[in-house]
Write a structure and sequence with these properties.
This protein is mostly beta strands. The chain has strands spanning 21-23, 30-33, 43-46, 51-54, 59-62. It is built from no helices and five strands.
């Protein structure tokens, strides 16, 4: 996957990433969720209808409350 095609998926490899969610770069209705164990692949989750994932709040919010922010890379990326 080229850097230009990267979608924000975290590697979920270090303790700081576990049990956290991360923005999907190209789809504001989606986000990545790391599990409780290292090296488990992140799961792609979707916000409920009329909500978007807001990375500053670390949760889905009403589309009226959502603001675009510059994507921030997660601490690690998946091993491909």
């Amino acid at each position: 996957m080229s850097e230009r095609d990267y979608n924000g998926e975290p590697g979920c490899r270090i303790p700081a990433e576990l049990k956290k969610s991360y923005r999907h770069y190209w789809d504001p209705t989606a986000y990545w969720q790391c599990g409780q164990e290292p090296e488990q692949a992140a799961k792609l989750k979707r916000c409920p209808a009329n909500e978007l994932y807001y990375d500053k709040a670390q949760r889905c919010v009403s589309w009226k409350d959502w603001q675009w922010t510059e994507p921030q890379e997660p601490p690690t990326k998946p091993r491909k």
